Amino acid sequence: MSVILILLIASISVAGLFLAAFLWGVRSGQFEDDYSPASRILFDDKPSSKTKTQSQ
Amino acid sequence: MQVEKFYYDNKIVKAFGLATILFGIVGMLAGLWVAIQIYYPESSLNLAATTFGRLRPLHTNAIIFAFVGNASFAGIYYSLQRLCKARMFSDKLSWIHFWGWQLIIAAAAITLLMGKTTGKEYAELEWPIDIAITLVWVIFGINMFGTIIKRRERHLYVAIWFYIATWVTVAMLHIVNSIEIPVSALKSYSWYAGVQDALVQWWYGHNAVAFFLTTPVLGLMYYFLPKAANRPVYSYRLSIIHFWALIFIYIWAGPHHLLYTALPDWAQSLGVVFSVMLIAPSWGGMLNGLFTLRGAWDKVREDPVLKFMVVAITCYGMSTFEGPMLSLKNVNAISHFSDWTIAHVHIGGLGWNGFLAFAILYYMIPKMWGTNLYSKKLATNHFWLGTIGIILYAVPLYWAGFEQSLMWKQFTPEGQIKYDFLQTVTNIKPMYIARSVGGSLYLIGALMMVYNIYKTIVSGKFIANEAAEAAPLVKEAHPKKEYWHRVIERKPVTMLVLSLILVAIGGLVQMIPTFLVKSNVPTIASVKPYTPLELQGRDIYVREGCYTCHSQMIRPFRDEVARYGEYSKAGEFVYDHPFQWGSKRTGPDLAREGHDKNKRPDSWHYTHMYDPRLTSPGSLMPRYIWLLDNKIDTASTPAKIRAMKTLGVPYPDGYDKIANRDLMHQADSIASNLKKDKIETASNVEVIALIAYLQRLGRDIQGEAKKPIAENK
């Protein structure tokens, strides 16, 4: 059962990474607006200028 | 602010999408074939490569890695670019990722059918392929993180968080569970043994479900459902909250695969508790998805894409409620090793993964070809056929699982086991037949999709590079002189990498001594290493995939002890690289097959391998005729003994040089036993090795029956 040490180390390291990522997210304002991102993804306007779509 | 013009890469999405469809069909065909073999074993064509034991891993690997894997990549490459408002970081890496992954799949198909397997579920691929997977995964990661870094949309939409979590955790799981010592080009032994191996395996196995079959697919749901319904996600805040809760809780659920086994009780309880807690974040996702359709249910009536998504999300909710229920020990006591588990898996697999994959294909392909889906009616018929298929798959297996489990536990009024194992098998054959009908319907639906997609593609014009415009991110202004930590905080990738290095150093410092100290392995004094012949036999057992139908773990229940013998103790498995506890009892448990109370003559096993129905009428087991002719690979014995020694198995020094002498000696004595029962055979054929292994199972603690087992932990 001593292998649980490896699993704990791996899991807690990755959890630590995720914690760091979470804190980065909070500090850089990723979660300041938890309302408009949901709608923003629905806007996929075609380019305004007449750019020819490339097909190969 | 100058708007930048760029193009989304659709070619890579097309490639992954087509691969998804191809391997979906292949994986489903493999599944149908094994489903038929389970009631009609002759359909294996009596070939080694196509027995259930070899074909089942092909099915699971094809579906998980080739079907869902490619579907996730297709969906991620499509959605990530559009969410980041940036083309993939590197086209070259995109294509290396694509071709690397398909080559891995091809290698998997070939090696699995050849019997080159590690014997660990969903991690069967041998060490060279494991290395390839690591390399391709790193390339995928560079491409994905590179795209995120060059994004033009500062906010990371929730789907991107799910993709990041997927990448990081799968990397960790794959590396830790694949630590193995190579013995030859395509054979390795797990570094872990017995209970340790079981824990690592199911820490991996459950998290493969969590981070390969759930998180990327949730990410896809969060993009494709709003887009298809043209509605914003019901609660963006909820999506953030349940994401973080999900990824922290999921990791600890693994032990629920090992309830009532020789895994220590406290580890089992940990798994139970976290598994039950998991209902909350999982249902957060389901509810968020379904509520997104508030006010848009009329669209579901019209759009096959939304129909698939609704059933997919519902099946996700059902599985993530059923899973925690199955993690309760009293429920698990009935369900473990039975077909109930299979039903549960397929609600998730067919319903959540399959249907969501179909949904995103039906969504993306018309868009990328600048046209409409060829036939909405055909897609709707696919939907209904698939849904009925799922129901006809799961319900018979629920019935079968309950019946077989309750029959296993049935005693006569006199206190004897009422049904022998074969009776429980024969009884559920009709349910197995019904299940394969359900699976066939699902497959036919998928074939309808192939036709529909083909007609859509030929009617449209592929847009290889889709034009887009967006403003680049504005760099935030910073004061000239800054505390050094503040600088790092602004550079998220640097911060992550530095944290990772720090943590890794701490981890290594602790891990290396743990594994160099042998006394950490708990032992029972009477448990001895396998003899060379038994070791070769064990490797044959692993190669043929016997563990896919036979368990080796007697649980501490009255009926199991009555049927199989003393329940299994952790110390009995210390030399088992890999462990072979199994997950299913299509056939009986073998943990004490060699125990004097259960022991059958060597000739019984010989006949049983030649044709199981000669010893056990009604048996579903395939014939293993080639074992009677194939020669044991004695040339590999020294390398195997040396590898085991490195892993801590106490063979005497220099034993590898003389191991074959003992092997032939033991083989000769088995051959002369067989001769006494009128069976003429050479000593050096594989069936002899397998017989030696089977006759060894469960013997070691025979002498300890009256004494308490002394284990030094």
> Strand tally of chain A, please?
0
In DSSP terms (H or I, runs of 4 or more residues), the helix count of chain B works out at 26
Provide the gyration radius of chain B in Å.
Answer: 27 Å
How would the global form of chain B be characterised?
A: globular
Instruction: Give the C-level CATH assignment of the largest domain in chain B.
Output: Mainly Alpha
Average pLDDT score of chain B: 93
Low-confidence stretches of chain A: 51-56
Biggest chain pair interface: A-B, 46 and 68 residues
**What is the helical fraction of chain A, as a range of percent?**
40-55%
Structural class of chain A: mainly alpha
Helix content of chain B: 55-70%
Taking pLDDT < 50 over at least 5 consecutive residues as the criterion, the unreliable ranges of chain B are 517-521, 707-713
What strand line-up does the widest sheet of chain B have?
1-4
Secondary-structure content class of chain B? mainly alpha
Mean pLDDT across residues of chain A: 81
Largest sheet, strands/sense/barrel of chain B:
2 strands, antiparallel
Distance between the termini of chain A: 57 Å
In a nutshell, what does this entry contain?
By secondary structure, chain A is an all-alpha fold.
Structural summary, described in words:
Chain A has two helices and no strands. Chain A has 56 residues and is mainly α. The longest helix of chain A is centred in the first third of the chain and has 24 residues, at 4-27. Chain B has 713 residues and is mostly helical. Chain B is globular, with a radius of gyration of 27 Å. In chain B, helix 5 runs antiparallel to helix 6 (194-212), helix 5 (158-177) runs antiparallel to helix 7 and helix 7 packs across helix 14 (339-368). The longest helix of chain B is centred in the first third of the chain and has 33 residues, at 52-84. In chain B, 63% of the residues lie in helices and 4% in strands. Chains A and B meet through helix 1 and helix 2 of A and helix 5, helix 6, helix 7, helix 8 and strand 4 of B.
